[in-house]
Amino acid sequence: MDSPPARPVILKRILQLGIPIMLGSSVLSIITLVDAKLIYFRLQTSAGFTEEAANWIYGVYSSTMTLYNLPAALIVPLTTSVIPALSAYIASRNSGGILRIVNTSSRITALFALPAGIGLTVLAGPILKLLYPMQPEIADAGAPLLMVLGISSIFVCTMLLTNSFLQAFGKVNIPVYTMLVGGVVKIAANWFLVGHPDINIHGAPVGTMLCFIVIVAVNFIVIFRMLPQRMKLMNTFGKPLIASLIMGAAAWAFYGLLYRGAGILIGVERAGMVNAVAAVGAIVIGVVLYLILVLRLHIISREDLSLMPKGEKFAKILRLK
């Protein structure tokens, strides 16, 4: 029987894995900090805003960033559970298990990220008016920003998942490099777009979206080369995308109908209350419709949910086989 490795060997291995993961977690925070300073600078020096105006408009952008970060928070528990499960199959060289974990976790990520991102996009204005009823100017200025950030949040969630794949495969340095590349793209895009007077702050969410698209694309290229079999992207992402698009269209349409109906019953002069009723109603209808589509299209199974914390409980509630 082989003796366990010596403590210095174990410590060295922990540092080899832990330091890149720590760096990867801090790279985007550092880039975001640099990016904030850059946006202020470009708004004032090239876009022609005063310091006060630049502060206000960046404050609007920051308020939309809070919502944009919410979908990613839902994915973190999944990515945490994926790493040990995938690492076990990699260690045993179980090709079928590796592909199953990758496909299943990707599908679950799509199930949460796609409707959340599309929902933020189609209901950007109503959601901001719901959160800032006494500051309609924030909702009006922030809605176009949140529409782009909603789509960006899908790629952020996918980035978190692909980073966990790479870490499970032992490629802990690659997420650091890809996030650095994405950060450079973000800074470059913001330099040119935010500095344009006609685009100004509207260029910031575009830079964010380009950043994460690049990271996800490079991550997937590396992952595809390591997988024992080809990953079927259409089977994994196709049905969740269709269900999410139907949900988004329905939520958008029902918001308009509910707004008109609530306006008649409550009175158009009480615009905040009318929007609250319509926005909440549209969100509830969208969630219920999406859940029905997920079950009817057989997008998820009990085996899929087993990867999630308390997945068995959800499977019983949904009566999945």
Structure description:
The protein is mainly α. It contains 12 helices and no strands. The radius of gyration is 22 Å and the shape is flat.
Q: Mean of residue pLDDT?
A: 85
**Gap from first CA to last CA:** 42 Å
Number of strands: 0
Largest sheet: none
* SSE order: HHHHHHHHHHHH
Strand content: under 5%
- Poorly predicted runs: none
Class from helix and strand fractions: mainly alpha
General shape? flat
Concise synopsis of the structure shown:
This protein is an all-alpha fold and 321 residues long.
Layout of strands and helices, then pairs:
Blueprint: H1 7-45, H2 51-68, H3 70-91, H4 95-122, H5 124-131, H6 136-168, H7 174-194, H8 203-226, H9 233-266, H10 271-296, H11 302-305, H12 311-318
Key traits:
single chain; 12 helices; 321 residues; 83% helix; mainly alpha; flat
